Amino acid sequence: MKVLLVDDEKHVRDAIRLLVNWKQYGIETIQEAQDGESAIDMVNTHHPEIIMTDMMMPIMNGVKLLEWLHTHAPDSKTIVISGHDDFSLLRHTLKYGGTDYILKPIDPEQLNEALDKAIQAWNKDEELRHTNRELNIEMNQIKPMYWDKLLSNLISEPSAYDQAAEQLEKELHLSRTIRECRVAILSLDTMERSVKNKFSHNLDLLLFSLINICNEFLINDQRGYAFRHWNSDNEIVLLLWKDQSGSEAFLAKINEGIRTALHTRVDFGIGSSRSFPTDLALSYQEARDALRQRNLKSKETWIHSTLKTAKTIQPALTFSQYEERIQLAIRSGSIDQIQDTIQEWMDAVKLSEAITLEQLDHWWREYRVMKRRWVQQFFSNISEDQVKQLLLDEPSSLIVPLDEHGILSLSLWQQELTRSIVHLSKLLLESQQKDKSVIFEIAEFLQKHYHEDVSLQDIANRFYLSREYISRKFKQEFEVNLSDYLGQIRMSKAKILLRNPHLRISQVAEMVGYQDEKYFSKVFKKLEGLTPNEYRKTANPI
C-alpha cells in the first residue's frame, strides 16, 4: 500500500512521517508532493491508495486537488490536514470524498485513527471491487453459454421465443418485427485436415475462433447471430434474419474472413427462408441435410443447400456385403490378404459418382457393428468390459478422411481401414498364442495373487520352471520384468483403493502386498510420479 503526503511545508511532511507506525498498517511506500500539481503527477504515476493533503498551498491548493481526485482517482482515500478551522473547507472535504479533516498542530492519536479509518474504507471498497470484477468475468464467460443454450432450444422449442424476445432485441438486435429467418450450419466434420490437426487438443478454441469471426460480420450488419449448437459437438449454427436472398453471398464473405484469419475455408449448409420462430427447425434440418448429402469427392462450392446436393443413381453399396471376405482375411492373419480384401471394397467405392457424409456415416456404423460381432466371435468367454477394451482403437464418432483441401481422400480411408483390421487380426493371433503359453498363466496368477508376498522362486516352484526361464520368457512376452509387471498391477489396484478416503496409506499398502508403508510410497512415486498422498488429493479434489 502507498501513501502520498501533500504539503508545501517540508517540516509538516517530516512530522507526519514520524507520527505514524507505517509498517503496522502495511504501508510500504511513502511519497511526497509540495503542491497540488505535483500531487497530480504523483497520483497519475504511482496511484497511491491513501492521500494526506493540506488545503492552503501555492500553484494548486487542496480544494482544487480534492475536486480533481474525486473525478480522476475516486478509489483513493483522502485525509485533509489543515491549519484552518473553516466550515466551508470541511464541507468541501466531505463533498469530494475526504474521509477525515484534521487540524494542525497534528495530534498523533487523531492522525493514526484517521489513517486506520481510511485504510479500512479502502479495503472494504477494494473487496467490493474485487467481487464485482469476479462477477463481470464470470458473466462474460457465462453469457455466450447462455445464448448458446437459449438459441439452441429455440430451434426445437420455438414457444420459448416469447419469454426471450425482449432480451434478443436488446442484446442481439433481433427485432420483434422479424417474420422469417434462414438457418445456416458450419460443420467441422469436413474441415481441412491441417487445421483440425492444429487444434486437435483444443477443439473449443477452434469453435470459439470461428464463432467470433462469424459474429464480427453478422453483428456489425445486425444481420444475424452465430452460436455453438448444444446438441452437436461439431456444429456452429447461424441465424440469418436480414436480407434473406443475399444470405449465400454473405456466407461467402464470412468464409473469406475465416480464410484470412485461419488460412482455411469451411463448408456451410443453408436452409430455406422459414417462418420465425415457428419453423426454425425445418430450416435447420434443411441445412443439415445439405451438408450430409453434398458430394465429398469434389469441391464445387463451399455453400450447400438442398437444391444443390449430390444425387446418386447407382445401386446402394453396403459394407456388410464384404463381411465374410474380411472376416476370413482377419482369421488368416495375412496382411497381404487383408490388403487385397480392403482393395476390393475400395474399388467398389471408387465406382460411386458421388459420396456423401450420410453414406460415409452409414458405412462407418455398419463397420462398427461388424467389428463388435467379430470380437465377440473371436474372443469367446470375455466380458462386455473386455469387448469395449478391444474396441478402444476405434473412434466414438465418424472421422471423415479428408485431404489438405477438404476433399474426401479414399487413400487415407483405405489406410485407416486396413490399419484397424490388421490390428484386430494381430490381436486374434496373440490371443491364440496366449492360450498355449504358460507365461500367460503366470501373468493370470499374478493378477489374482498380487496382494500376497509372491517371489520369483515361489512362481518357479508352482509352475515347475526355472527362475531364469521365467524371467527371460516373461520379459520377451511383456517387455517388462516380472517384478515390474507385478508392481504395475499393485500400483493399479492401489490407485483404486487410494480413492477411498477412509483407508489409511498403510492399509492400502498392506492390501496390495506391501508390509512396509515407506517402501510402498517409494515404489508408488517412482512409477506414478506422485506420492500416494499427492495422488489421493488429485484423485479426490475438494
From TrEMBL:
Organism: Paenibacillus phytorum
Pfam families in alphabetical order: GGDEF_2, HTH_18, Response_reg
Modified residues annotated as 4-aspartylphosphate in this record: 54
UniProt xrefs under CDD domains: REC_YesN-like
Domain Response regulatory: 2-119
Entry keyword set: DNA-binding, Phosphoprotein, Transcription, Transcription regulation
HTH araC/xylS-type domain ranges (all copies): 440-538
Record-linked SMART domains: HTH_ARAC, REC
Protein name from the UniProt record: Response regulator
